[in-house]
């Protein structure tokens, strides 16, 4: 343990600089214009795994972005840990809100990160958290303490639905065979209170298009006489929630699991301060589904949010036009038992049904994934908890997250093994937002904690 | 009359080429990036007035875009006609929907314009219609038939609210003194059936901003727990109309004049084919305020339309984000007696009132103008009707238009004279839309008809 701590201290500057180099490559998967950077990043990840000590690393071509696969086998009779992460990142826009360029990483101190945090797109989600595992392997190889076999699968489409990963996993079940899957792509409660994510929400993401007249029209000559696609789209979106902020799509809640009073009471124990929450977001009030509190609304309840909307004249000044078309990107976060393909179909049918005469409506499914819940009595969970307890001095709290990692459900289905979500980020790290950052403390703590997971997992597996 | 016809025939190619040169200058007033082209266009208009025979022309500086003023005085005791027009144009976007570049005019034949039409932004609204008056003056000077004095006032801010024109008119009442104001910035029913616009709608144009959290958020971690500005904006916009498509803003209809059954019966006489109307716009149905037909909805009734909306991620692919802000440009067409500043205030108050907790709302008034109705028994109206009757072979029909020319009400207030709206465009000319065009037939017919207005107006004024 001491050697681990001292190794991290001794090499921390190099660990930070290596991550900074990786963060400089704008591997945005949502925009094909960045494709070359995707390839460059995959190659950089491959090189880092070879350097860390994998004895076999390859870049696997897929129908989409390549997947980096690596492995280190010390004894086939020992357990195997499969590490999953992703090297692609969210788009950086709105770029003008970044206080420093998203792909020119800088270290700045913040109230929550007095030791400094690395500001860059992908610093936390997920390049930084993925790279902790590479450095943890480096340590275990260098110190001769790797207690089992390890495999790495680092993909480049997590932010756009992991379609190629599903394709890859289905075709490589033998190659990916493992005893536990380890992922750091979630957060923890605070730097003083670690937590392990035991639940994830599913996702259904669609794009809708409302078409009225066959061309943009003069709002004076036609205003009031034809359906305005923007007004109609607004009306349709508004109708997707009722006055209690329940989603109105027929059948949407049919398979939603209702938690017991006991389970909700257990959840309520997680430290949460509503005033600080509102203050951190400059909100005069919260908002959400009636009958549930904030920590339930963003974890155990399904939601529907518009992620983008556009139509008509959006330039400087005024244009008196009725647009021919209006568009929106809409996503639904789903909870365990809701099937994302079924929900996508329910949404599509409903959205087409509520379209008024005078417009045509198209719904284009983007991607989706299932929700997931993991038990807290598995060896993997216990090993992770023991590792956190040792490095943070307090046990981890099990938490249901509102985020989605669609492939976790896929792994259980295809690879028949459980996933342990060891997250080291914080909600305040602004992932998917301008000024995303990852604390130096969190980065190094992760590198320290991961080898302990290997140690205890192998011990408990005996 | 014959000499007029033959003069137009003889010089028509030059008339067309001169207009095409003017249309090549992208004088978009809504976007300051085009300011230099605004200046270039003003200078071109000035030169054309001097060439046509004005004995005094000047470019008048204003707080905004310059106004071109010109005059030809033959005898101070004779009546004076003031011609108004505008040299600025609407933005061309969506640029990708133009079949030829908006500022590279080309002549193409269409079903309605077998003799060809000039396709270019501003060809009809209003460079083409304004330029008819310049060429009509040229004819009257050349043929020595100008029967009275004439003044020209051509502005560069009509498409953004004519703010500087109001400023200019208030300060130059003596200079602009006239007996009748002549404007060609409206349309007529068809090339076989001329019409004179006797009513215009007023306008109130605002931009709204809804702000939720202080930064873009991850829709998984925050989805369902905070107000989503796009969902909220959609809800607020949807609530601005009730189930009968009446506008719900308190007081909105208080001053609206209700037309008598007789007046509505008179309006219903104007030729209109609903099937052709729907077909021309590819609409499976029309849409609008309950209790009124299409030709009433777009003329005698006030309306509210969203002209543009934007917020969140609108790029390629998917981004699971909750935007910090959402925006919309909203305009209301008003009818006589509705005061645009009062309506703007009513909208602003209402929109702020309906904002739910969890968001902040801002309303920024853009511009506006009053509606207008002109009598059909004035000398000006009669002279115009006689001129149309002579060139088209049938009398013109009085029509209430849905469009707005805010300055018409201003002229009556400041200059105490009536405006005659002699329009030669067609609704199908796609003004404010991609592929705006103006028929060669209409352009030349206008040049033929205008001198007859002067003739009869002076005769009847004796």
3D architecture notes:
The structure is a homodimer of 462-residue chains. Helices cover 34% and strands 21% of the residues of chain A. Chain A has 462 residues and is an alpha+beta fold. Chain A has two domains: 2-200 and 372-461, 3-Layer(aba) Sandwich (Aminopeptidase); 202-256 and 302-369, Alpha-Beta Plaits. Chain A has a six-stranded mixed beta sheet, with helices on both faces. Chain A has a four-stranded antiparallel beta sheet with strand order 11-13-9-14. In chain A, helix 4 (163-171) runs parallel beside helix 12. Chain A starts with a helix and ends with a helix. Strand 11 (303-312) of chain A pairs antiparallel with strand 11 of chain B, so a sheet runs across the interface.
Radius of gyration of chain A: 23 Å
Quick one: how many beta strands of chain A? 18
Looking at CATH, the homologous superfamily of the largest domain in chain A is: Zn peptidases
Question: Mind describing the biggest β-sheet of chain A?
Answer: 6 strands, mixed
Count, helices of chain A: 13
CA-to-CA gap between the ends of chain A? Answer: 21 Å
Structural class of chain A: alpha+beta
Unreliable spans of chain A are: none
CATH topology of the largest domain in chain A, anyone? Aminopeptidase
- Helical amount of chain A: 25-40%
Look at the structure and give the CATH class of the largest domain in chain A.
Alpha Beta
> What's the domain count of chain A?
2
The CATH architecture of the largest domain in chain A: 3-Layer(aba) Sandwich
List the chains of the largest interface with their residue counts. A-B, 101 and 100 residues
Shape of chain A: globular
Oligomeric state, counting identical vs distinct chains: homodimer
Strand content of chain A: 15-25%
**Average residue pLDDT of chain A:** 95
User: Which sequence of strands runs across the widest sheet of chain A?
Assistant: 1-2-6-3-7-17
GO molecular function (chains A, B): metal ion binding; peptidase activity
Pfam families (chains A, B): M20_dimer, Peptidase_M20
Protein name (chains A, B): Dipeptidase
Domain Peptidase M20 dimerisation (chains A, B): 199-357
